[in-house]
Structures are given as C-alpha cells and as structure tokens.
Write a structure and sequence with these properties.
Elements lengths: L1 H6 L36 H12 L6 E9 L2 E11 L7 E8 L8 E9 L8 H12 L4 E3 L2 E7 L2 E2 L8 H7 L6 H8 L7 H10 L4 H10 L4 E9 L6 E9 L1 H17 L12
Antiparallel strand pairs: 1-2, 2-3, 3-4, 4-9, 5-6, 6-7, 6-8, 8-9
Length: 273
C-alpha cells in the first residue's frame, strides 16, 4: 500500500528536496464545491483552521489526527472530529483525508455528518433549498440523495432539470434507472454513485481508493443524503460527501513517484583492501 510505503520511508531519505507538485483536480474553472469551506484546494493546515473554528468550545468533542511520514517529514494524512448527538444537542462529524507533501498535502475526500436532535430537525424542503442554493442543480436525485457528478469541469446533466419542488418530490423515490443509464452512457466504467458510496464505507487512503477511482465514470462527486426524521418531511441526518476522483488518481501518481525517487540509497565507502 502506498500509504504504508510513504510512512515507512527511512529517515535518511532526501524528502527535504521534494518540490510539491499540484495534483490535477475535478473542480476547475468556476466550480469549486466545498464543505464548510474545505475543498480540493485545501491542505491540512487550512482545513485544520476550519475544524478548530467549528468545534471550538464544544464539549465532548473527540479528535483524531492521523499522521504519516514522507521520508523524515511527518504530515497530516487525515483529521476526524466528532461531537455526539444528545436529546437537546445536534451531533456532528467532520472528516478529511489528505495526500502527501509531494502532492501539496491536498484534500481529496471530505465528509460531514449532521445528526439532529429530535426537536431540532429541519424540514426536508428547507434543506433542499439550501443545498441547491449552494451547489446548484443536481445531476440525479433519489434514494434520499442528491448527487452532483462532475466531468470536464462541470456538473453533468442527463436531462432531469430539477427545481426545488421536483427534487423534493424525487428524493424519496428510487433512483430513476433510465437516468442512471444515461449517466453511465455507453461506457463500461463504474457508476460514480456506487464509487462515492463505497468511499464512505472503506479506508480513505489513496491506495485504497485508487483502483475504483481509475474505473469511475466521472472526475468528481458530491453526495448529499437526507435521512427522514420524526416525520417524512423532516430530516434526522444529513450526510455530505465530497470526493475528488481525478485528484485521487493524480496525487497517487505524484506520491508514488516521490516515494520511489527518494528511497534510501546506501552510502557506504569501499573498504581498505
């Protein structure tokens, strides 16, 4: 695994000589979707400021900052902060995964989960209005999700021009299979809906995501799930996931090349004969 390989490079590595290369990203031009300001352009330092601001002064917060090594340089590979839900307190989780310093320590996976206290559950209509106001018209809606699928710097449209009312009507229904077929086109590449779902459940290291990223029929995905609450028109859980598929592929290549280039080479001298 690349992540383990980077972590195990010996201290004598020439990591100090690495010049960061900016990985390619799905989110170019005017499209820079973010979750609380964290996007594919964020590095661990800028993301940490968001984490600290969001959870500042909130009791019972659990923090998990995972580090790896590139040569003798330690870097933040993942951050996970969470606050449990209570009878009168909304729960929250924020999680981000980063590439190595060789690829500018960029965020390629961002997730935020909100669990609403029963007396604070927002309406589904209001949530959809806010989501579409921030991210625009989704590619496909259904199965309690709004999916934004990105290719070539834009959100893919498959003919379903959702408005707030039609998205609200569609979200509780199964995904339209005809729309899903249009989304995948004539290719045999993997469904981006499936890719982002599996990314939510699996290990978030580049090496663990790489194979599916290479097989995905998209360059990026934003998924928003709204779980029904105490009544069908209310939301109990909102889950936001941003996956930069193109950056996973690009950063993995950069990191792998850096790991190979800066492998420890013996420096022993010839003994006296």
């Amino acid at each position: 695994m690349l992540a383990m390989g980077l972590a195990s490079l010996p201290a004598a590595s020439l990591a100090e000589d690495i010049k960061p290369k900016t990985p390619e990203t799905a989110f170019s031009g005017k499209l820079h979707p973010d979750i609380l300001g964290i996007s594919g352009e964020s590095n661990a330092e800028s993301a940490r400021a968001v984490f600290d601001s969001l959870f500042k002064g909130r009791k019972d917060t659990k923090t998990d900052i995972q580090q790896q090594k590139l040569g003798n340089i330690s870097f933040v590979a993942a951050m996970n902060f969470s606050l449990p839900a209570g009878p009168t307190q909304n729960g929250e989780m924020l999680s981000t995964s980063f590439s190595s310093p060789a690829s500018a320590n960029r965020a390629y996976f961002v997730a935020r989960n909100l669990t609403f206290a029963q007396d604070q559950q927002p309406s589904k209509a209001d949530m959809i209005k806010e989501i579409m106001g921030k991210y625009g018209i989704p590619t496909i809606v259904g199965d309690q999700h709004l999916y934004y699928i990105y290719r070539r710097g834009s959100i893919i449209s498959v003919g379903a021009k959702y408005k707030e009312a039609t998205a609200l009507e569609a979200i509780g229904k199964p995904l339209d299979p005809k729309t899903a077929v249009k989304l995948n086109g004539d290719t045999i590449r993997g469904s981006c809906v499936a890719v982002v779902k599996r990314a939510q459940a699996r290990a978030k290291e580049l090496s663990a995501m790489l194979a599916e990223a290479k097989g995905a029929n998209c360059e990026g995905v934003l998924s928003v799930q709204l779980v029904p609450g105490a009544s069908p028109d209310r939301v109990s859980i909102a889950q936001f996931t941003l996956l930069d598929v193109k950056q996973v592929i690009s950063a993995a290549a950069i990191d792998s090349a850096a790991a190979t280039e800066h492998q420890f080479m013996p420096t022993g001298s010839t003994p006296k004969l």
